[in-house]
Amino acid sequence: MSYAQRDTPILAKLCTLLVEDQYGELASRIFTVLARHGRQTLPSIVRASYLNSRQIKYGLIVLIQQHLVFHSSFLDPTTTYYEIDWQQAYSLVRYGKILKAVEDRFGGKAANVMSNLIALGHTRIQDLREAYFPPSDNNSDAGSDSGRVNGKVNGHKPNGTANGANGHNNGHSNGHGEGEEDVNDLTIQSEEELDAIIHHLMLEGWIIRVDEIQYLSPGDIQGMVQREVLGEQHDGKMPSGVKAKEQMVFEINSRKRAMRDDWCRVPKCNSRKRLASDPDFSRTTKRLKQGALEWQPRDANNIVMLESGLVIRTNPEKISVALRTEQLVHLVEQRLGPVTAKIYEVMLRLMETTIARAYEPYADPPPSDPDAMGPEVQDKHLVTAQDVAKKLDKDLDILDGLDPYHVVRLVEADTRVRYDTTNRQINPPVDPTTLSYQTRTKVIDCHIRRLADDPFHFTTWHSRAGFSQWHVEFDELSKSLIQHEIETTIQSRGGDRGPLGVKLIRALKKKGKLDERQTCNTMMMPAGEIRQIANEMAVQGFVQTQEIPKVERREAKHSIHLIWYDRQRAREKLLHDTYKGMIRILQRIAFEKEKVRELLNKAERSDVVGNEEKWLSQDELSVLRKWKEVQDKLLLQLLREDDLVATLRDHTGPLTSP
Amino acid sequence: MASASVAAPEAVKRDEDEALDQARTQQERMEQLYQKCAEAPEGTVFFQRDLANMAIANMQELVVILQELVDRHLMKIMQFDGEPCWKVRTKEEAERLRKLTPEERLLYHHIDQVQADGIWSKALRMRTNVTTQMLNKCLKSLESKDLVQSVMSVKHPNRKMYLLKHLRPSEDIAGGPWQSEGEFDMPLIRIVAEVVEKIIEKETCLEVPGNWNDYPRAATQDRSAEIARKKAQQKEVMDIEDTPVRTFRPPRDPNRITTVLRDSPKYPTATSLRDAINNANIIKDKSLSVADMEQLLEMMVLEGRLEKIMGNNYRLASRALSTQENFNGFVDAPCGNCPVFEICSDEGEISARTCVYFGEWLDTESEAV
Ligand code: SF4
C-alpha cells in the first residue's frame, strides 16, 4: 500500500482539520467518525455520531464527490462500507500547488479548467461544457453542479473559483492583481478549446478517467483482484507453495497496475476537420505552448471532440511528480547554481509527461539478480542536451557558473576569445544568446555533466545515440533527498552543535553500528565531545542505541554501547513531527482567526465589501491587514511543511537497507 | 645508536690524557665520567668500549665506577644486542629516584623496561607481585614525582598504560599521528584539514569576478537576441509566477567573486595530499601514511567540507548546508525547534493557542495561561 494511504493518529488529526476547514462541520463530523472507527456502514456511523441518517447521507455525498471517502457499494450494494481515502484527504492542502504546477506548465487557461475540476471533485465532460457555456434554453439536463459553477467560471482567475472558500490553497499567490488578468485574457473561448485543454491535460497525465473501482478502498481492491486471480488460476483456493504464492502476488500487482494504467489512458477521441467558422483557438494553444513543455504534436487542422459522457477527475498522484521536480531543482540551485538548476528543470519536466506517479506502490519484487537484467530505462525517460536546448529559455546566461578557460574552448567554433588572467575577464565578451545551436548544446551538455558529477548524481549517463542520453535515477535520488532533509533538520535544530550532529549521522550511515571507540576514530574526535550530541540525537529519535552486556552482572560500565542510525526510523519520526507541526500551524490559524472573528464578519458583510475604507475605522483596517499578514505567513509555512512531507513520504518506498 | 658515542671519545681524547693524571680519586673520576657522558646528545647509549675510550679510567676502575653510578641512579644499565650498555640520567632525576621506596623503585624499574610501549597496570602487578593497594599507592606517588605518566590505550580504551614521564607514547598505545596522549589532537587536525582544504581548492576551483564575461546586457544591436528577449517577455506574462522576472541574470559586480569548479581538473588524491603535508613539515616528528591521510579526508567528507567523486578523488564540497538560510518548512517554523515540542498538545497549557514562540514569530498575542 502506498505510503500516503497509511493512516496514523497524527495524520487523522491533520486531515480532520483540513476537511473541517474546507467542507464545514457536517462533513468533518462524519469524517471524524470514520477516522476514529475506521471502516463503517451507514447505521454504525449513525450510532457513533449523534447525527441522523439524512444528515449523514448528505455529508457522505459531499465527501464522496470529493473522493475523500471510499465506498464499497460496487462490490455489494446491500451493505455499503465507507472508509477514508487518506491520500486524497491529505491532498486538500495541495490543491493550490496543483493549480500552480499546471499553470507553470500549461498556462492560465489550463489552470482555470483544473481549478473547476478540483472544485467539482469529478464531472462529466458535458456538465463541464455547460458550466462554461450555459445553453441558451434552460431545459438542459445539466446537473445541479453545473448550475453552481455556471457564471462563476469563465473569465476568472483559477484561484478565484476553486479556492474562494478556503484560504490555504491560495497561499501567497494571492498577490496577483486584477490588472494582470486584463493583459492576459484567460477566458476560454469555446467548447472546442475547452476540450482541447482537457485532452491535453489527459495526455500529460494530470486528468484521468473516473472508474467505479476508484471508489473502492485499497483493501477492497486487493480483495477483489485476489478473488479474481484465485478464481481464475487457483480454483478459488489459496495456493500453498511458496512459489505459487509469489506467483499470485505477482499476478495481483500486475493486474492492479493494468487497471490503474487504464484509468490514465486517454480515450480515443473523435476529431473533425476544422471548419473556417470554428474559432481559431490553435493560436491560443500555441501561445500556451511557450510556457509549456510538451504539447503532444497535434494536427492543427483537426479538432478534438471528447465524448460528452466521459467522467473525469484530477490524477491524485501526479502532483507528487511535480513536487519532486521542484524539490530537486531547488536542491540543484543551492548546490550548483541557478543556471544549472534551470537546465535541470527543463530535463525533469521533459520526463514528467510519461511519469504518472513518483512512486510505484505495486511494483514487482526486485529480480533476484538485478545485474543480470542490466539497467532498464525506458526510452521515454531519456533526455539529451539537444532536447534541453530546444526548450530552454533562450535568454538564460548559460555560460554563467562555468570555468572561463573552458568557456573559451567551448565557444571556439563560434568566436575566438581568450581569458585575460590579469583582469580575469573574457576578451571580447561572449553574449550567450548569440551562440549557435551547436555551441549552445555543447554548453548545456557541460551543465548536465556537472549534474552527473555531483555526489547526489542528479542525472546519469545512459547511452550514446549520436549525443549522450541521460536519465535520472529517481529512486536513489529520492532516498538522498530524504537523507538531506534529515540532515537539514538536525543541522537547524542543533544550533551550534548542529554540524556535529550531522557529522555523527553521516558517520553512522556510512559505518553502521559503532561502539564508542569506533565512533571516535571515524569522526576523529575525543569521546567526550561526541557523547552529548549522541544522547541528544537519541532523545530526538534520530539515533538508536543498544547496550550489550559483557559481564554477567550487566554492569553498564562493562557493557559495549552501540549506536547506529536507522534511516527509515528517522524518516518516520521526522514525518510524524512534520505532521504535528502542520497541525499546530492550522490550530494557530484558527486561534488567530478567532481573535478577529467579529471584525471579519463585519468586513464580509455585503455592504462593506468594496467599501472597506468607508465602513471600517483605521484601527479596524490595520487589524485586518495584520490578520492577513499573519495568515499568509502561516499558510506559506504550512505549504513548505507539505513540501517536506512530499519528500519524506511520496517519492520512495520504505528504506530497508541503511 | 652507538655511532654517536664513537665520535665523542675521539674528539676529547687528547685533552683527557692530562685529566687522567689529575683524576686522583675514584670519586673525581666518577664525576668526570658522568660529566663526559652527560655532554653527549640526549639519549646516547654508551658501551663499555666507548666509556673506556674516554680515557678516564681503566677497565677495572670503570667497572667499579659504573656500578657506583648505577647505584646512585645517575646511570642506567641496559642491554643492547646482548651487550651491556649505559645511559645517563640527569642529576635531578637521580635525586628523585634516590628518594623512592623500594617498591616504588621496583615498579619504576619495570616501567622503565617497556619504554614507549608502556605497561598496563595489571601486567605490572603480575610482574612485580605487589598488592593492588601498594601498586596504586606507588604509581600515584611516582606520577606525583613526575617520574612516570599514565596514558589511556587507544587499542584498549579502558586500559591505563604507564611509561616514563619523558617518553612519547608509541603509536600502539597513543594512536597514529592524529592522536596525542590517547586523544585526538584537535588543534593539529584542524590545522592540517585547513591546509588540505586550501590545496584542494587551488587545484579544483577558480575564482572569477562577477564581470568575467561582460557582454552588453541590453544587446539591442543584436536582432536575434532581441527577438529572444521579446519572446521571453511574452512568456513571462504567460507564466504568472511569484517572481516577475524568471530568467536568471547574474550580477555583474566585479567585486562579487564566485568560486567555480575547474573543468576536468587534476583532482588531488590521498597520496598527493599526504606528500604535500609531509613535505610542508606541518606535523612535528611524525610523518603521515596514506591511510592516515585517507582517514582525515573521509572525516572531512563527513563534515561536509569535501566531496568524494569518482573513486578516490576529492573536491571541495558545495557550501549548500553551511550557507543556507532557510532549512526546511518544518524547522523554519517555531515548532520545528521548539524545546517543548514533545509535550505540546492540542489544547491546554502548552498548545498552539498559548504558544509564546508563535507569538514572537508572528508578533501577535497568545492566550494567557
Ligand atoms: S505550538 Fe508552540 S509550544 Fe507547541 S510545539 Fe509549536 S512552538 Fe512549541
TrEMBL record, chain A:
Residues 13-71 form the RNA polymerase III subunit RPC82-related helix-turn-helix domain. InterPro entries: POLR3C_WHD, RNA_pol_III_RPC82-rel_HTH, RNA_pol_III_Rpc82_C, RPC3, WH-like_DNA-bd_sf. Residues 198-481 form the RNA polymerase III Rpc82 C -terminal domain. GO terms for molecular function: single-stranded DNA binding. DNA-dependent RNA polymerase catalyzes the transcription of DNA into RNA using the four ribonucleoside triphosphates as substrates. Specific core component of RNA polymerase III which synthesizes small RNAs, such as 5S rRNA and tRNAs. Component of the RNA polymerase III (Pol III) complex consisting of 17 subunits. This is DNA-directed RNA polymerase III subunit RPC3. It comes from Aaosphaeria arxii CBS 175.79.
UniProtKB/TrEMBL annotation, chain B:
InterPro entries: RNA_pol_Rpc34, RNA_pol_Rpc34-like, WH-like_DNA-bd_sf, WH_DNA-bd_sf. Residues 13-40 form a coiled coil. GO terms for biological process: transcription by RNA polymerase III. It is found in: Nucleus. Keywords: Coiled coil, DNA-directed RNA polymerase, Nucleus, Transcription. It comes from the Eukaryota. One of its GO terms (cellular component) is nucleoplasm. DNA-dependent RNA polymerase catalyzes the transcription of DNA into RNA using the four ribonucleoside triphosphates as substrates. Specific peripheric component of RNA polymerase III which synthesizes small RNAs, such as 5S rRNA and tRNAs. Belongs to the eukaryotic RPC34/RPC39 RNA polymerase subunit family. This is DNA-directed RNA polymerase III subunit RPC6.
